[in-house]
Fold:
Amino acid sequence: MSRFIPADRRAPYLLAPSLSDWLPDDHLARFVVEVVDQLDLTDLIRSYAGRGSAAHHPRILLALLIYGYATGVFSSRKIERATHDSVAFRYIAANTHPDHDTLASFRRRFLPQLQALFVQVLLLAREMKLLKLGRIALDGTKVKANASKHKALSYAHAQKIEEQLREEVRALTARAEASDRDPIPDGMDIPAEIARREDRLAALSAAKAAIEARAQERYSQEQEAYDAKMAERQTREKTTGKKPKGKKPTPPTPGPGAKDQVNLTDDQSRIMPTSGGGFDQCYNAQAAVDTQTMLIVAQHVVQAPNDKRQVVPTLERLAALPDELGQPNVLIGDSGFCSAANVKACIDRGIDPLLAIQRDAHHLPLFERFAPDAPPPDTDDPVVLMAHQLKTQRGRDLYALRKQTVEPVFGIIKQVMGFRQFSLRGLAKVSGEWILVALAWNLKRMNVLRMA
Structure:
């Protein structure tokens, strides 16, 4: 006769069950609670006035959000539901059930405080002997904004719609003035129709102003780059006495182009090329990753589709970290970060730059791979010296760390944790959400490292 393990869903407990007994000792939820309990949340706690009904403790809400982002549950409604359905979420919430409004409000309200908590987690990782800054790999990834690219409005189309609406307002006004001679059709409310169009005209005017401001910012940057190139050509001509070779730089054109656009859902996001081909409404999320532990040590979000200007902001964030974490000595980045200014910025801060000059072949010929290093060039040009270092055996080994650290981090965040789109809108809120993602990744990674 077959034998089965008895199972009775109605069997009463002899003693009250403990949530702590329902999770394995090495479960991520336990580690998240342990870490959050060690964080200094004084600034968050002080923000509660102490009036009205009792509030959920910030430690509970923060731990729920971190665990949610670490496990692919980003919606406050889904987190609320998980406190009923999931043992892990129920354990973190201590058998309470914060509603989705509470969770969403907490996330929006305390975004500015997340950076300080991010640093506290790094210090905790150091105390656990999991982190000491040294070699840092930097990269950026496009993350979809909470906006559709089909909700974008181009400058030319805005002008066209604006003229159409102005003509309709003029026609409605003329019809109202002639109402004593020509009766107004039944159901037509002329003042309401005019007001509706005037509201749309005001929105179009604001959208055009945003496009014009972006165009002016772009023109200023392009003009600065153009002036630098022209100054360099003039210096070279004076030094050599010969006219520089190559095509003369074209001066930038001021003002918005017909295809310049703004998104009506999230006007701070930008159309960017994506890795899978095509374009989408995105933000460019940056992360500096420790190559030894794969922990994110600095992060920020920008609206620029390329990474050329992101080395200096990253260096500033690394310099702002506590001295106890140590100082990075190598910064590794792909060709998107390479420029003479970025190389100099690294050297000025005592950091050895390894920024690819161009895309290299993935597989070097066998004997070239084992060939002895060429002698260093006789020059003081830091870019030339860096290019030589990248071709040495040590330089190639160090640069290979980039593909083994920061790229897998982005891959796991997007594919395993499932974070491919921001939930919030606007650069400031999106930047805070990216810190929350980095926090979740670091705790997820630390939980693995501590048991290695």
